[in-house]
Amino acid sequence: MQLLSTHVAQDVISHGLEMGADFVDLFIERTHSEGILYKNSKAEDIQSGTIFGIGIRLIHGEQALYGYTNLTDREELLRITTLLGAQIGAKGVGNRSINFEALKYPKIPTITDQEVDAHYKLSYLKKIDERLRKDQKVSQVMLNFSQKKQVVEIYNSEGLMASEERPYIRLFHQVVMKDGKNQSEASFGPGATGGWNFIEGLNLEHNCDTLIKQATTMLHASPCPAGKMPVVIDNGFGGVIFHEACGHLLETTSVEKKASVFWDKMGEQIAHTALSAVDDGTIHGAWGSLSIDDEGMPTQKTLLIEKGILKNFISDRLGEKKSGHKRTGSGRRQSYKFAPASRMRNTYIEKGEYDLDQIIASVPDGLYAKKMGGGSVDPSTGQFNFSVQEAYLIKNGKISAPVKGATLIGTGPEVLGRISMVGKNLELMAGMCGSVSGSIPTTVGQPPIKVDDILVGGEA
Amino acid sequence: MKHLMENVLDRLSKHNAEGDLFYTTSKSLKLSSQKGALSEYKVSSAQILGVRAIKDGRIGISYTEALDDESVNLLVKEVIKNAEMSAENHHEKILNISGSLSDEVYYPEDFVDIKEKISKALELEAKPKMLDSRVVAVPYNAYSESENHQVYLNSYGRFTTYKDKHYSVASSALMDQLGKKANFYDYHLARSFHDLNWDKVVQNSLYHASHLLEEKTLPTGKYSVKFNSDCLKNIIECFGNFYSAKSAIDKVNPWAEKIGQEVVSKDISIIDHPLYEKAFRISKFDSEGVERKVMPLVSDGVLKNIYHNSATAQYFKTQTTGHASRGAGSALNVSGTHLLIQGQNAKTAPAKFLEVIQLDGLYSGANRVTGSFSVGVKGYVWENGEKTMTFGNMTLSGNLSDLLNHVEVLGLDLESSTDESFFSVPLVFDGVSLAGP
Q1: Mean pLDDT across the stretch B390-410?
Q2: Which of A22, A225, A272, A383 is 20 to 30 A away from residue A243, measured at CA?
Q3: What pLDDT, in 10s, does the model give residues A36-60?
Q4: What are the tens digits of pLDDT across the range B140-196?
Q5: Nearest to A108 by CA among A346, A438, A333, A334
Q6: What is the pLDDT of residue B79?
Q7: Which secondary-structure segment (H or E) carries B201?
């Protein structure tokens, strides 16, 4: 079902051009979401809802004017367009009719859906809850299941008309463990573009065992010692460091303002020769995949760094205009309430040649960050700070005692130059990325890597 | 809108369900600039209708941003379906209270021309560059205004309205000095355009960014630390579960069984004060329509109360404290209002202490179950009443309970956070662990 009449889209876009805009686009979205919070061994909250709205963007030179509304009537959309266009202060080209042509693009496959009812989903969550609670030290299990279907339509003044239906599914697991005065927690949040078959395909037993092992290990871990040391960061969510400390610095949103330390480094060696990295929107079923971006451009696999040399930035329409770096199908946004911006999709370090054992064996004295937590980065300086959820000391090339409270601190450029070993075992993990155009699904990933020297925060 | 809300409640009652609804509308304007020109002009108008239904002791929630008949029909159908699928919860009920309450802040009519707003917004980017040649970019700068209106109605006729408008201005300064980069961000909130302190945000950004260019690391060790009000607010709020009855039910509140016990230093008291006159915005009622009042959380170090809504109160066989929180599309929870940390037995500041002005990665490095956290910090070294050095590239690790038990009060006057929602006497925490290279 079409979300907005083509005639209304034509009228609004023509009006924007009349008001002096060089370019006008409309983003129409209807998203239906469902969520189940399974906690205290029962379905505590079940909720669902619909968001619906239209975003209107006028671009004039490098200036972007953006407005949104929940109302679809022609008059409201023209009112907002007039409000935006009044800021341009230039005369447009007169009444122009736009002939839309539906964009044909390759569909990136999602994980096939299997219709299951809410009873079935609840029984599945109950099974996970019971499995985790078999360990007597588990004091709480929280399972947050979410599923949504986002339908988008995009029209622009170049005659583009595109639409996509994007199904998302995610199951976040969190377990809390208590033993006397000690408490610990562990979490895991797999997600995909697709339906229930993704959940059925998860290895429930293995995932529960991993969570219990992590929480058990950290329950009696000693405080992490502080100081500079080599750190081995394991695969999967370890890629969050690359995402935060490098990926955001490669988005034209930062580059165009010179607010990235890499803004003038195209073609230069910015990382160790061991490192190559990509941002790939085309991975089948991956959490950050899209067939088209939120500006209606088919998505692509973008080589960011090849053997340490900066090859491409992550760019959207406005980013291309402001920075000169070509669009990469990376214009993304949380919803119609945000103008699109250059954002990551599935971003990861490509696999290398080492086994994890070989990497660990190369470290006489350091830290093994098995599971990373979240963190933050200032793109303008590249400085980052990340927590480690599960960490162990490395002594004489072997994994030793578990430690808690470890954080990794540094700058993106420094760390990129110090990644000297890259492993074979690439793994991707789902996450949510918050930035200028809101919170969007992205995948992080990497094989195990060794950073020769990084500041580890812990107990003094 | 009240008519539509009543209509939804009528339809719930036909399903033998009761409920409550929020209808929220918002309007906003945001301007920011780059390279001397307006780079962003964003206007919005949005609405959302959210319903909570309780049927046979089971709770469902649904919301919609589209208010056509089809969407509202779907809203009712889904909320009933969601309730039927939920587990029984005999503690959560729609409060049997009626009557109307209003909390609509007066704000002056905005006669400011958009051209003046744009002109001032452009200055946010231009001024830092003009005032200091080391500023290479102003990566974040914005003028914003936001107006929100919320209406609440429940099956027993409780009807509340809330209206608020605020203006804000933000700026930053990214400096480069011989390849070393530093950035700082500041903002200011006001009730009217003319009350905005544009110069303050620019000056503060420049002041701190220029000092951070000089940052050095300190030797790893234990230090006396004072957090500025914004940093202290962030740490206290990060562990809001310590005061939450909902977290106690979920077994993630380490203070759950400590009411009546000494949990922090005897020198401090913590008050939740929804009606505090110096706060940016008082809060007259909670999300269940319950009138709020001042509540001591900690008195002379002893935990006195935790936050309750009507459901947690029922669970613990006590009274709601008026701290229910819920949005149009979210489940019933609890949250605090304005926090005041008061002190006694004030002492003089130690000869040397660190003032933390920036925290990085607090939420990702925090374990809310234990209160432990590890965070990147920057700030100033104070010696004998003077700033002697800027420090950075350090991590601070601590535990909320430990911090609040090893604290000295430096004065009795309250210092406010930038958003005027958190107020504390100046505090210095002893023996805080900082690690550097």
Answers
A1: 93
A2: A225
A3: 999 999 999 999 999 999 999 999 9
A4: 999 999 999 999 999 999 999 999 999 999 999 999 999 888 999 999 999 999 999
A5: A346
A6: 97
A7: helix B198-212
Provide, as residue numbers in chain B, all residues whose Cβ is less than 8 Å from the Cβ of A68. 44-46
From chain B, pick out residues whose CB is under 8 angstroms from the CB of A48: 61-62, 78-79, 82
The better pLDDT of the pair B68, A128 is held by A128
Please report, to the nearest 10 degrees, the dihedral formed by the alpha carbons of residues B292, B293, B294, B298 taken in order: -70
**Percent of residues in chain B assigned helix, strand, coil, to nearest 5:** 20, 40, 35
Q: Which residues of B touch A383 (CB under 8 A)?
A: 360, 376, 393
What is the rounded CA–CA span in Å between residue A237 and residue A443?
A: 9
| H-only helix segments in B22-113 | 69-85
Give the global pTM. Answer: 0.88
SS3 state at B396: strand
Q: How far is CA A382 from each of CA A283, B180, B369, B390, B393, rounded to the nearest angstrom?
A: 28, 11, 31, 19, 12
Instruction: For chain A, list residues with pLDDT below 70.
Output: 93-95, 459-460
d(CA A221, CA A405): 9
Residues near B156 by beta carbon (within 8 Å), at least 6 away in sequence? B18, B94, B95, B96, B97, B98
Query: Pairing relation of β-strands B295-299 and B333-334?
Result: unpaired
Please give the helix or strand (H or E) that residue B229 lies within, else none: helix B229-238
Would you call B66 and A50 a contact, using CB atoms and an 8 Å cutoff?
Answer: yes
Enter the tokens of residue A368.
Answer: 């093994």
The DSSP symbol for B291 reads B
A424-428, long-range: CB within 8 Å, 24+ apart, which pairs?
A: A424/A351, A424/A352, A424/A353, A424/A354, A424/A355, A425/A235, A425/A351, A425/A355, A425/A356, A426/A235, A426/A348, A426/A349, A426/A350, A426/A351, A427/A235, A427/A236, A428/A236, A428/A239, A428/A283, A428/A286, A428/A346, A428/A348
Is residue A41 within 8 A of residue A311, CB to CB? The reply is no
Query: Is the predicted pLDDT of residue B55 greater than 70, yes or no?
Result: yes
Measured distance CA(B139)–CA(B106) in Å, rounded: 34
Please tell me the distance from the alpha carbon of residue B94 to that of residue B229, in angstroms, as a whole number: 38
* CA distances from residue B34 to A322, B22, B49, B124, B129 in whole angstroms, order as listed: 10, 38, 37, 10, 12
d(CA B87, CA A123) in angstroms, rounded, equals: 12
Select from B39, B44, B174 the Cβ nearest to the Cβ of A63: B39
A319, A342 Cβ separation under 8 angstroms: yes
- Name the nearest CA neighbour of A428 among A241, A248, A190: A190
Distance, in Å, from the CA atom of A290 to the CA atom of A167, rounded to the nearest integer, reads 10
Query: Do residue A45 and residue B61 have CB atoms under 8 angstroms apart?
Result: yes
Which of A407, A444, A456 is the best substitution to test chain B (most B C-beta atoms within 10 A)?
A: A407
Cβ–Cβ contact A383 with B under 8 A: yes
The values of phi and psi at residue B195, to 5°, are -90, -5
Q: B361, B365, B394: which is closest to B379 by C-alpha? A: B394
In the numeric block, which tokens belong to residue B177?
């000095």
Residues forming beta bridges with residue A65, ordered by sequence position? A58, B41
Model pLDDT, residue A93: 67
Of A324, A305, A1, the closest CA to residue A151 belongs to A1
Average of per-residue pLDDT across B50-61:
96
